[in-house]
Design a protein that fits this description.
By secondary structure, the chain is an alpha+beta fold. The protein contains 20 helices and 41 strands. Strands 10-22-17-26-15-12-11 form a seven-stranded antiparallel beta sheet. It has a seven-stranded mixed beta sheet with strand order 33-32-31-34-35-41-40, with helices on both faces. The protein has a five-stranded mixed beta sheet with strand order 9-21-18-23-16. The protein is globular. The N terminus is likely disordered. The structure holds 2-oxoglutaric acid, fe (ii) ion and zinc ion.
Amino acid sequence: MSVAGLRFSKPSVALAAPTPHLYVANCGPALNLTVSQITEAFEEHGRVAGVSVADDSGTRVIVSFERAEDAAAARGAWNGKPCMPLLGLVMFIDYALPRKTEMAKQSEPVFFCSLDMEIPGIILHSEFVSPAEEKELLAAVDERPWQTLAKRKVQHYGYEFLYKVRNVDLTKKLGELPTFVDHVVERMSALPEVANSTEKSLPFDQLTVNEYPRGVGLSPHIDTHSAFEGSILSLSLAGACVMEFRKYHKHSYDLHTSKANYDSRVHGTHIMGRGLDCEARQTIPDLHQTTYFSEQEMIEPPKVKVERRVLYLPQRSLLILSNEARYGWHHYIPHHKEDVVNGEKVPRSSRRVSFTFRKVRLGPCYCQFPHLCDSQAEIAEVPVSIINAWGSKDNDSTVLGREYTICSAVEDNAVHDKIHGVSLTVSEVKDATTCKVWIPATPEIEKMYVQEVYDAIAPHFSSTRFAKWPKVAQFLHSIAPGSIVVDAGCGNGKYLGLNPKCFFVGCDISAPLVAICAQRGHEVLIADALFLPYRTGVCDAAISIAVLHHLSSEQRRVRAIEELLRVVRHGGKVLITVWAVEQEDKSLLTKWTPLTGKYMEEWVGSSSHKAKGNLSENSLHMIQEGDTLEDKSADEEQEFVTIFSQKFDGQEDSRQMKEQQEYFVPWHLPYHRAEIGGASAAAVARGFARKDDKKGAVVYNRYYHVFVEGELERLISKCAGASVVDQFYDKSNWCVVIEKSCY
Ligand SMILES: O=C(O)CCC(=O)C(=O)O
Ligand SMILES: [Fe+2]
Ligand SMILES: [Zn+2]
């Protein structure tokens, strides 16, 4: 139904004379309106010659009437008013100028070399098969039955590709790949970019053969992330074509207030289009993201920038798509009888046959393109554990921080959390949409020596934690007004609200600390840093201040960084600070108890066992003299401890200390602050605290893994999509600012 040969543009100024073409905003496939529904509705005003999409948004269409008067009538009736035939939708309607863009479209340069594309992960090998091999391959498929689709024919080997769900059925393996592809498979498998790729593509176990008649192409798409892993390889036989690659850049939201922004992004609350009596809820197709437009934005919707690159796929060439090219870019074969290649018309051959080799994926996809990733979209539709821990009320059911809303049916009391790749066991189903789920247990060492200690010392700890570290303040002030900031491991919430132009959300594993934040009016909840209960890409920035050093394995520390990266949007920043081995005041290290023996083996794991010391288990409780830390008002111990003049100067020990990274660091809870006989007695009985009558304090041990220089950067380098934009050492901490790569 599109109007052949014509493209349209929205006029920048109101047109004096009406045209038969209307530019209609807030209407289109993204609002689940089909061309025939739109046509039918507009035909109320006269004969409609065609409806076509105005741009890539899916929310703007061109409705072309046969007569300009009818277009004027439709505009008069429905511009800015509810359109009853389209369920009361309010559209913005203006006259459109037809514009020939065919030439403009074709003026994009066509690349012949994949390197010129500047898309990471795209490789083109020309003449990958010989004419003789090509002939054999074509003869082989021509002997076999084709499945006929609307415009092209296909054959599937290994697994059938199911077009309805754009995936394979893993339970229905068709068999091995046919022997007639053996020699190409062997050669492709030996390619270094395939054999050595970080994501395993081998062995290929799915082959789709596509036969395109002249003029037939393939709509823009990304091969379903959850369906295939590793690289995708496509051999072009019998003919050539151009392939266009598209990357959509969605700009960050800029809504009126950060709270509204937060509500819309976290809770999905619709922002009402002011002045228009409709909910201006619009969805950008392909991006699987819902955006909420204000009235102004509806009239001038935020631009979705599309980057396009066109590559010529010669006959007998092999195209390899990996990484960003595979996960982050749509690919598209225009439905053209001829390709315009740098000004020259190149007719397509009567037939092109492609062999696409892929490897089916067994688990979820963890790519860095969550907005394009069906594995990760599932969790986005399955928000959010922010149920009861809001404000100060009813912490009970989320004391474990583990309440999720499950939108899909919960089967067999288990939910597979695709993002985290773990099975969650549902312990209590409250109703159809809410259930309690359990995430894997925190290691015992963290449970006792971090969580329980902070729970026990929370009010006292909080009373010593008010000074804001200038570097953190500087970071928070550098964030754009209206941003949403997550403080993961927020403690008593001293950084929440530090930049009044931003909206802060905090979480911490310690319920008593979260309660303190809630009493102060902060938006907080109880959560585990490894399982942040926020949607992917929900915030603009995140901070993790003095948190990672409380995690007892490298895997868990990496995982926590990945979680921080997950929750920030692309282009968002994360500040991470951790305690350094390289303490400004070396004497401090002598006040800490190196972890040894059972603690290292059972809890921290022998791989990170670097301790040279040979301290007995009892020595864990032998705290040095003069290490009293209680009731000081300094911010971090490091700052405060500088008052100790004692300097550490033993060379031998210094080397030993350097290698030691696992410690118990004492916290002195004065008797008058402790519930003697209550929680403290239990902690003493269980061995993670001791009474020190001389000091009049219960001494709790907190587990720390202190970082060596470069270690934080090394962990970050394991996280895809993170680039370090700043790193520094400050006040005995290693600090890094990372940016989530833009897609
Ligand atoms: O025909 C081609 O080269 C591409 C095929 C393709 O993109 C697909 O099957 O997903
Ligand atoms: Fe594809
Ligand atoms: Zn993915």
